[in-house]
Amino acid sequence: MAEDDAIFDPSLKKKKKKKKTAFDIEAALAEGGNEPQENNTTEHPEAKEEDQDDANVDIDLDFTKKKKKKKKPFTTDDLDAVMGETKEDGGNEGGNQDDGAIDDNFDLEMDFTKTKKKKKKRNLGDLIAEADEKHDDKENVDENSAVWMGSDRDYTYDELLKRAFEIMRDKNPDMAAGKKQKFVMRPPQVVRIGTKKSSFANFTEICKMLHRQPKHLLDFLLAELGTSGSVDGNSQLIIKGRFQQKQIENVLRRYIKEYVTCHTCRSPDTILQKDTRLFFLQCETCGSRCSVASIKSGFQAVTSKRAAIRAKTA
Amino acid sequence: MSIQNLNTFDPFADASKGADDDVQDGLVHIRIQQRNGRKTLTTVQGLSSDYDLKKIVRACKKEFACNGTVIEHPEYGEVLQLQGDQRENICQWLTKAGLAKPDQLKVHGF
User: Fold this and answer.
1) Average per-residue pLDDT for chain B
2) Rounded distance, CA B57 to CA B86, Å?
3) pLDDT > 70: percent of chain A
4) What is the pTM of this model?
5) Structure confidence by residue, pLDDT tens digits, A237-273
6) Which residue in B33, B108, B110 is closest to A301 by CB distance?
7) In whole angstroms, how far apart are CA A135 and each of A30, A138, A158, A260, B58?
8) Interface with A, mutate which of B27, B34, B45 (most A CBs under 10 A)
9) ipTM over 0.95
């Protein structure tokens, strides 16, 4: 089977090449008639052969363009010669020469896809070819960042940089190219209740996400906002005063910065513990331990009616 | 040219300098409180008692076009109180006047 295919392929190619170089409709028709016959005579499964035929047609299409230029009948024996010529053509174009040389070293059959591309490029306009070659050069740099290792030449800055990052990525894959671990939070749901109160609906949920006591966050929120408030039966926080989601978000962000993320490594994986009247933030990632500011509401000006206060106290 | 290590170092230099340094020590807390409606109140706590707060409040009132007062508090000392949301203004003014450094200002509230 395999041998037959191998034999079958070149014959097909040759015939098609002749047909297309000549641009002879009759010959093409004749060939078109011949092909099915050949398929019939050889007793392989037809589908397979047809696939191969398609592949060959693709290759041939590419080669025909080449041949228009060269005016040569194409045979597999001539492939090397053609390759040499293409190399010569590519000489003035610079970068591709190396690629051609490398390709020659590989198996010819393997090369078809690659050589196809090369030849296409040369048939296109100069501009496109140049652009492609630039692109190729870039790819080369990307692929071989340590290409200078064996050779005597000087390394470039880009290569060194790439090498450093590659090593970094290899050594610690969890770091993911120096990306900072993002701390994703659900936004607080703040709804107005009446005209003078606001409700922070997912308060306990956010406390759970932050792994903090609701009381601690409550203290902080009330001290920062300078108001009073409490948690009601539905585990939502009722704050006195009008507050919008954006404002609560700001305060929450400040809370997270001060009491949740580690001050050394910024990891949110921390424990807040009370020790001799002070709160300490213990980081689970880097093991650092530092004290955090105590929550103080500070000076509170009198905003309600003084007469009302006097009536209450008296 | 002198060798730095051989210089005598006065350990009390900072302490003696602290008195006449024009920048105060400690944090200045700037807070906002909501009043009825969309009215607010800005309080400035922690300004050094070396300054004449009455003069400061007089300048601020003129600058921000708002009313204000100085309140004596038993625990927190003298506290500036300005009408309206003057947090941005007071921060800029304090740094511009050289009364406090930007890292000494701590703005609270939303």
Assistant:
1) 83
2) 12
3) 49
4) 0.54
5) 999 988 999 999 989 989 988 888 888 887 888 888 8
6) B33
7) 43, 5, 16, 47, 68
8) B34
9) no
Tell me whether residues A301 and B109 touch, CB distance under 8 A.
no
Which 22-51 residues of chain B touch chain A by CB within 8 A? Answer: 29, 31-36, 38, 41, 43, 45
Residues of A in contact with B86 (CB under 8 A): none
Structure tokens at A64: 């025909």
Interatomic CA distance for residues A127 and A78, integer angstroms: 29
* Number of alpha helices (DSSP H) and beta strands (DSSP E) in chain B: 3, 5
Burial class (CB in 10 A: 0-12, 13-18, 19+), A80: exposed
Bridge partners of A109, per DSSP, are: none
| Cβ-based contacts of A251 with chain B (< 8 Å) | 109-110
Domains of chain B in start order, with CATH, are 31-107 (3.30.780.10)
Joined tokens for residue A69 = 């230029």
Return the amino acid letter for A91: G
H helices of chain B, in order, are: 13-20, 53-64, 87-97
Most confident of A56-70, A72-86, A141-155: A141-155
pLDDT band at A158 (very low <50, low <70, confident <90, very high): confident
